[in-house]
Amino acid sequence: MYRSDLYHPGSEIADELKSHYQRLHHVPFPGFVAAEFFPELKAEVDRLLEQSRRRDFLMECMDNSPRRMNVVNGHTIERLSTLIPQIYNDQRIIDFLSHVVGEKVLPLTDDIDRYVINQLRKSSDTFGAHYDDYPLSFVLIMESPGIEGGGYAEMVPNGALSDLDVNPIKLPLKAADAYLLKTDTTAHRVAPLKVDVLRTAINLAYTTENFVPRAITESANKLYAEEEA
User: How many CB atoms lie within 10 A of CB 40?
Assistant: First the structure.
C-alpha cells in the first residue's frame, strides 16, 4: 500500500530522512501511498466521512485556538474499517518510523484519537494551534489544495503556540504524500483554508518506548467526542 522501495530502514534515503527529523522534528514523505493503492484508500476515507461530525469551537486548553473542521474519531473507524487499522498496525511502517525517530515506535491501544480522519471543507476552516498528548503523529494526505489554497501544516519545533504567528515552517503537501511530526513539543496547526476546497488527512498517533507524557489535556476527547461539540 505504500512505497516500500523508498520508505524502509535500509533505503538510500532512510538516513537522510532520519537526519531531517532529528534536526527539525518533522519530515515529509513524498508519494508515500502507492499510486495503485491510493484509490482504494481514498474510497475508504470518503465512505467513513459519511459518519463525520462537524466541529466549530475554540479550544480553551490550547490558548483558545479554533477548531473548524469535520472529524471521524478512532472508535468509529474501529467499528467500520479494517483498512485503516491495518495500516496503523503495519509492522513494516512502524519499523520504518522507528528508524526515522531513532527509538522504538509503538501503537496506542484504544485511544479515541489513535487514528482519526480530519477534513477542512470551507474557507476559514482550520485545525488551530496545539500540541498533542502523544509524541508522534504520522499523517497521510488524501486531498490538498496546495499552498495557494491554504490547509497546509505549520509548525515551530520546541516553540510556543504563539510562535506560529511569527515565522512557522510551512509544509505544503499533495495527495498521497505523508509526514511525520514530533507533536508533544512542536507547536503546530493546519492553516485556514483560503477558499471552499477540501483538505483531508488520516492522522495516526503513536508513542515511543521511552516516552514520558506531560499533563494530559482534554483536547482530544473534546474534539473527537461522539456527541456534537
Answer: 12
Whole-angstrom distance, CA of residue 66 vs CA of residue 38: 30
Predicted local distance difference test score (pLDDT) of residue 80: 98
40/90 Cα distance (integer angstroms): 17
Under 8 Å CB-to-CB from 117, ≥6 apart: which residues?
45, 48, 49, 52, 71, 72, 77, 200, 201, 202, 203
| Distance separating alpha carbons of residues 131 and 112, to the nearest angstrom | 16
State the cell numbers at 131: 500540541
pLDDT, tens digit, 9 for 90 and up, residues 31-86: 999 999 999 999 999 999 999 999 999 999 999 999 999 999 999 999 999 999 99
**Domain-by-domain residue ranges, the chain?**
14-224
State which fold the 14-224 domain adopts.
Jelly Rolls (2.60.120)
Cβ-based neighbours of 135, under 8 Å, separated by 6 or more: 182, 183, 184, 185, 206, 207, 208, 211
pLDDT tens digits, residue range 71-121? Answer: 999 999 999 999 999 999 999 999 999 999 999 999 999 899 999 999 999
Closest among 92, 96, 194, 176 to 139, alpha carbons compared? 176
